[in-house]
Each structure stands twice: as C-alpha cells, then as structure tokens.
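As a warm-up, study this chain.
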Amino acid sequence: MREILDEFTDIIKTIEFSSTTARYGFQFLKMGLRLIDGSSLRIWEKRFRGSLQRYSYYWLDELNNQIIGWDNAPHHPEIKTFPHHKHIDGKPLPSKDKLIDVFRYIAGRLRSN
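Now compare it with the structure written out below.
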C-alpha cells in the first residue's frame, strides 16, 4: 500500500483514517483519503494469507455522494466479470480494476482538471 500512496502523493491531501488488523490468517485494511479536489477515496480490503478475497473502493464527492465504486460483492451475477464490477450512476458495470487501476483512473481525472 505504501508504494501506491507514494506514487500518488500529488492527488492525496490527507489520510483521514487508516487501520489494519490481522487474525487467524486474515488481514483487514480500512483507509480513507481526502483528495486534492475535496473528494475522498474509501478503501476496504480483506485478505487471507496475503491473497485479496474481498474489496471495495469508493470514490465520493465532497458531499459523500458516490462518483464511482468498485467492489467484488457477489450481488450482480449478470455482469460478465462477476463478482468484480463497478458502480457508475447507480448502474453495475463490468470491471476487473485493481486498486492501482483505481488510483490511476482517479489521478487521470484530477490531473486533467
């Protein structure tokens, strides 16, 4: 995670919260980042012995409205990348983006403004 944060310091204003816990082979990460435009990125990951099992990455505007959300909750079996998908304008769409891809997408949007 440190490497990703270091690569995107120009778009991260502050780390609002960060917690990691580990037990019985599971590792949990929760992190909230405030970005330079006032939006935020909420990160949640669950790993088992280092392998990513569940995740959600939600980019929210300054009023906490969702801009885009990426996750692998198994609630959209009709999506061809099931369970991986993203939410845009309330619609689930195919996605296999990893956290680094999420950062690159957001950085591209913020750097172009």
